[in-house]
């Protein structure tokens, strides 16, 4: 069994280099982050420092359907607290009913994410990412494009004016301020109070079961390789914080597909080849960001396209070294995908070991985060 000191050392090394440096992306304020003592704070753009007033305004905007052109959808429509601010459907649906091609990613601990979408290495701030659901036209999400004046006027009310003044002073109402407030609220969605956290960082030896401890040993073993993509305190390689020197933006092809009719010979369906769409490099075809595993039990279905229903199924795919789809539109053996990550090599698990691994993943569930009124709108 890994002892606790070794575990913490592994998490620290894999998560990031905790080096003392003043990053350009960090802005120190009096805002109190809900993090464990000694943990690094998230990186924050200098032009949008955190404040309680911005978080409060951003929370109200997050739940407000007036932010969509047709007033049918809010940010919360695709990001429910009970699902770790993800949703329990395969792919998202915009305000006009148009289906997205991807599953809504969980917003839990997104403040620590180095990149902010499933497959774009250039979107590294929430301020930039939030523009996509607001103004995108294919697919339409909130559908603001072409309706900017009408949508903005809905927030020129006495109640909102007071909140904007508290957050931004005398700056005039604008979409820039709306984006900054939304980014501040989403950054506040920190989850670090799971049974695993109490066990690993707060000294509670009884916080997780013997089965979960065995599963933890499996998770961090070279036999399963899980920690190579889901390492560090946020259980994802794609992690950034105020003390991090390295700028790492990893993406992986996990052998989920290997269909014949594809673009760029990636084996992935032509309508979504991942990072290769952005980089135009063949080696990036089929690569997607590894999400955090925090609260992973609550954010089914899984993968970038929501095509895997349960965590048990996810484990089976990785144990097989990829997914073999035997019939249908996406028929093909992902295990033979030539661009698959070398970490997806397959492994054997007994029934008991699989249950132990699932028990460990369940210890990453933070019930307080999933139910906290801090993240809810009082008058909703």
What is the name of the CATH superfamily of the largest domain?
Cytochrome c-like domain
Distance between the termini: 47 Å
Structural class: mainly alpha
Q: Helix tally? A: 14
Account of the 3D structure:
The protein has 380 residues and is mainly alpha-helical. The chain has two domains: 52-190 and 368-375, Orthogonal Bundle (Cytochrome Bc1 Complex, Chain D, domain 2), CATH 1.10.760; 195-362, Cytochrome Bc1 Complex, Chain D, domain 2 (Orthogonal Bundle), CATH 1.10.760.10. 30% of the residues lie in helices and 1% in strands. The chain contains 14 helices and two strands, in the order ααααααααααααββαα. It has helices at residues 4-15, 52-62, 126-129, 131-135, 148-153, 158-168, 175-187, 195-200, 210-219, 226-229, 276-279, 311-320, 351-362, 367-371; strands at residues 324-325, 332-333. Strands 1-2 form a two-stranded antiparallel sheet. Strand 1 (324-325) and strand 2 (332-333) form a beta hairpin. The longest helix has 13 residues, at 175-187. The termini are far apart. Residues 5-28 have low confidence and may be disordered.
């Amino acid at each position: 069994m890994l002892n606790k000191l070794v575990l913490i050392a592994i998490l620290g090394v894999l998560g990031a280099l905790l080096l003392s440096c003043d990053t350009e992306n960090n802005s120190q304020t009096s805002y109190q982050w809900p993090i464990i003592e000694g943990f690094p704070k998230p990186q924050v753009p200098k032009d949008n420092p955190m404040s309680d007033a911005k978080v409060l305004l951003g929370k109200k905007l997050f739940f407000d359907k007036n932010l969509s052109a047709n007033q049918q959808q809010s940010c919360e429509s695709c990001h429910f607290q009970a699902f770790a601010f993800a949703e329990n459907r395969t792919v998202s649906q915009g305000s006009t009913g148009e289906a997205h091609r991807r599953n809504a990613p969980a917003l839990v601990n997104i403040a620590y994410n180095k990149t902010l979408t499933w497959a774009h290495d250039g979107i590294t701030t929430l301020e930039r990412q939030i523009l996509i659901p607001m103004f995108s036209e294919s697919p339409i999400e909130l559908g603001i494009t072409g309706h900017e004046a009408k949508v903005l006027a809905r927030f020129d009310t006495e109640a909102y004016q007071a909140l904007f003044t508290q957050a931004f002073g005398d700056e005039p109402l604008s979409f820039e301020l709306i984006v900054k407030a939304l980014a501040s609220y989403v950054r506040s969605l920190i989850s670090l109070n799971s049974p695993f956290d109490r066990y690993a960082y707060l000294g509670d030896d009884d916080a997780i079961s013997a089965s979960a401890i065995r599963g933890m040993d499996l998770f961090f073993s070279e036999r399963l390789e899980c920690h190579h993509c889901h390492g560090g305190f946020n259980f994802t390689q794609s992690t950034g914080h105020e003390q991090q020197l390295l700028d790492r933006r990893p993406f992986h092809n996990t052998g989920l597909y290997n269909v014949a009719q594809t673009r760029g010979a990636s084996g992935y369906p032509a309508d979504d080849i991942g990072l290769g769409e952005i980089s135009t490099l063949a080696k990036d075809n089929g690569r997607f960001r590894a999400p955090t595993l925090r609260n992973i039990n609550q954010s089914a279905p899984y993968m970038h396209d929501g095509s895997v229903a349960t965590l048990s199924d996810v484990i089976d795919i990785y144990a097989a070294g990829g997914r073999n789809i035997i019939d249908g539109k996406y028929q093909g053996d992902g295990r033979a995908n030539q661009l698959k990550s070398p970490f997806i090599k397959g492994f054997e698990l007994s029934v008991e070991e699989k249950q132990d691994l699932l028990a460990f993943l369940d210890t990453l569930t933070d019930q307080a985060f999933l139910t906290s009124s801090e993240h809810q709108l009082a008058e909703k």
